[in-house]
Write the structure tokens for this entry.
Amino acid sequence: MSATPPEKTLTNPRAKHGFIARTCSIAAVGAYVPERVLTNAELERVVDTSDEWITSRTGIKERRVAAVGEHTSDLAAAAALRAMERGGIKPEQIDLIIVATITPDMPFPATACLVQQKIGARNAAAFDLEAACSGFIFALEVGQQFIMSRTYDTVLVIGAEKLTSIIDWKDRNTCVLFGDGAGAAILQNRPNTHGLLTVCMGADGSKANLLSMPGGGSRCPATAESVGSRLHYLRMDGKETFKNAVQAMCQAGREVMRRCNIDISQIECIIPHQANQRILDAVGERLGAQPGQVFMNLDRFGNTSAASVAIALDEAVETGRIERGDLVLLLVFGAGLTWGAAVIEW
Ligand code: ACO
């Protein structure tokens, strides 16, 4: 039984667009970013860079940095509690917690288990999912499958990252790009309400070397030598990643719109992974988006990987940029390579 107040009845999105299945709705969203703001001006004192370069090449002006002692599970729990409060969801109602992250508190146990304890969701199963910056959409789809299969009724999906913990602060190519934060969504079975219409996901492991953290796994366990060689930091071939990101997000976006039999003019808001303003501009242009149709907040938060779309969705909802009934296109791309897209009727 949901404690959420009754909502405006919407057309069953699946029925409307030709899908007949148990409906999976996003009952509520929430987000949390750490208080500490790191500006481009401050980064000028850390590496050989400039506000002008960062702004013109990425669109990023500032990002958030977790406090000492504040970990991915703390960011995730804070975002989850906000979503639960908004949706009127009690901790014991949650059946499953999925945390999408590439910066877990530790290799194991799963960060989702730590979140379960922090929010008091004692009835929930919990596991992590790793699809880098694509993680939130992958986790939404996995969560949705549990609801549609009738295994669970309430699934908490979180994208959470403390990327500043794996950034090489001596590498100007990457350290200016990333930030910390978390976003959460609560999925529930609610007939005749808003929901996920369709999701597509993809991967190409042949390009795994474009974006990775080489150290810390079974291939290269931590040693004094691996740490000295800076293998425990994120590495990226920015140019190749850029090209692949534009191509993959456009393809995935077209695919989900085709499946729903809609075109870009019917989408109220496009919420892409907040990687780089130039990537988002290129994606918007290729998809035929109108000015203002692509949601951006990377100027304030940078690239928060799995948290990015979740934080942006929360902001779009909170600021009234999207309203119940609007069609929203989510687009993601990340290490793996991985990519995906989703159409939701908010
Ligand atoms: N400040 C000043 N100069 C810099 C900086 C900096 N912070 N970073 C790089 N430069 C220099 C480079 O050294 C290079 O100098 P050189 O020509 O003398 O060698 C010059 O600027 C141009 O570098 P490019 O790599 O060509 O710059 P580009 O325009 O490609 O922008 C960027 C780099 C921002 C990284 C871009 O390629 C990008 O955004 N790539 C995609 C990132 C992405 O989408 N990631 C998504 C997934 S993230 C995940 O999954 C965790």
